[in-house]
């Protein structure tokens, strides 16, 4: 009796799936956000973005609490939706979230990510993507907000919002 190639392939895929870690990377590779890291992340990401902007001949951004509130809310909401996209579960746009967070300036852009990568690796990935890089290097931007949410599996949801006053 011979097995058809498709059936054999499906059986092998099923077996390899059983051997894969479920729910994220192995504990040795996990980037867990401790209380200390939680406090450091916004400044670390701001520093990485500002180094990129300096290299491009642009002025630095400053962290804005209202933009960070909007970014944090969106990171948590993306986790609840289990998808990285720019619209909230309530249909809100980035403009809506920034206004709801009390930001008095103009919204300019938003970068998002669903990943297991660190904060600095996430900024590097955004910097390598033309659309995300344009948000980071918008010459009109003067403000930045950062938000993140980590699930129990280690998966991270990142949001970076830029604006100007």
Plain-language structure description:
The longest helix is centred in the N-terminal third of the chain and has 21 residues, at 35-55. It contains 6 helices and 4 strands; from the N terminus they run ααβααβααββ. It has helices spanning 5-19, 35-55, 65-81, 94-100, 119-128, 130-136; strands at residues 62-63, 106-115, 143-150, 156-164. A 4-stranded mixed beta sheet has the order 1-3-4-2, sandwiched between helices.
Side by side, the strands of the main sheet go 1-3-4-2
**Assembly state of the chains shown:** single chain
Query: Considering DSSP H and I runs of 4 or more, what fraction of the residues is helical?
Result: 40-55%
Radius of gyration: 19 Å
Strand content: 15-25%
Gross morphology is: globular
- Structural class by SSE content: alpha+beta
Number of helices: 6
Instruction: Quote the average pLDDT.
Output: 83
Instruction: Count all strands and give the number.
Output: 4
SSE sequence, one letter per element: HHEHHEHHEE
Task: List low-pLDDT spans.
Answer: 1-22
The description of the largest β-sheet is: 4 strands, mixed
Distance between the termini: 73 Å
Keywords:
4-stranded mixed sheet, single chain, 6 helices, disordered N terminus, about 160 residues, alpha+beta
Question: What's this entry about, in short?
Answer:
This protein has 165 residues and is of the alpha+beta class.
Helix and strand arrangement:
Blueprint: H1 5-19, H2 35-55, E1 62-63, H3 65-81, H4 94-100, E2 106-115, H5 119-128, H6 130-136, E3 143-150, E4 156-164
Parallel strand pairs: 1-3
Antiparallel strand pairs: 2-4, 3-4
Helix pairs in contact: 2-5, 3-4
């Amino acid at each position: 009796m011979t097995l058809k190639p498709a059936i054999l392939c499906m059986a092998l895929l099923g077996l390899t799936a059983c051997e894969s870690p479920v729910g994220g990377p192995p504990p040795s590779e996990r980037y867990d956000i401790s209380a200390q890291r939680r406090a450091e992340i916004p400044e670390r990401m701001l520093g990485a973005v500002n180094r990129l902007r300096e290299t491009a001949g642009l002025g630095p951004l400053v962290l804005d609490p209202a933009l960070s509130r909007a970014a944090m809310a969106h990171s948590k909401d993306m986790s609840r939706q289990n998808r990285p996209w720019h619209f909230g579960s309530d249909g809100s746009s980035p403009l809506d979230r920034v206004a709801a967070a009390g930001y008095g300036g103009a919204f300019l852009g938003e970068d998002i990510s669903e990943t297991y990568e660190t904060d600095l690796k996430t900024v590097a990935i955004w910097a390598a993507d033309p659309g995300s890089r344009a948000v980071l290097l918008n010459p009109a931007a003067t403000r930045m907000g950062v938000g993140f949410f980590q699930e129990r599996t280690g998966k991270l949801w990142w949001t970076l919002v830029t604006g100007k006053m």
